[in-house]
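Protocol step 4 of 6.
Sequence for TetR/AcrR family transcriptional regulator (Streptomyces carminius) entered exactly as in the expression construct, tag removed. Do not edit the line below.
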Amino acid sequence: MKAKSGVRQQKAQETRRRILDAALRLFTAHGYDGTTIDSIAREAEVAVQTVYFNFGNKPTILKELVDVRVAGDDEPVPTLERRWVREAVAAESPQAQLRHQVTGARQIYERVGELLEVLRNAAVSNEDVAPLWERNKRQRLEVQQYLVKALADKHPLPGSLTPDRAADIGYGLLGPEMYHLLVTERGWTSQQWADWVHSALCHHLVGGS
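Step 5 output, structure tokens:
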């Protein structure tokens, strides 16, 4: 009985992943508004009702995609407990901490940068999606505030720079908007973006390059 239950659970998880993978392909190719539940079902090769049963509606699919792809897995581990954050906090020098932060952001955007741009664009005109983008922004700022505190414990912030302003600098330079502008639009490699952001963060938050 347990074996049958395990097989059913595995099949259900595989179906969810197939729907999410299909939605990701369509969202990034046609945008949020250009993608329908019907088209997701066709792409995933499942019944339309299967999509509704698993997710309920399109905003929920987008939310699930962002949550899973940003994390890199579907484990219920909060961002502040993720490995890259723990390594950043544990780093001995502020420069090393900032390198961990940049590397973590680069890995996230390589996985999910296009999807975050879909989310950002959809939030402009879709009231069902706007809260998802606001939630994403709020979470990113909270992460930066947490990491600035860890940074200040290693090295005093330069000059009259306040923790709030320091978090704002990290929030801006490490944001998906900057990544999209330089990597997607201007053709930088993700490593070039990472090196430039690290240098800028060191200059502004530590006082050196």
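Step 6, annotate. The chain has ten helices and no strands.
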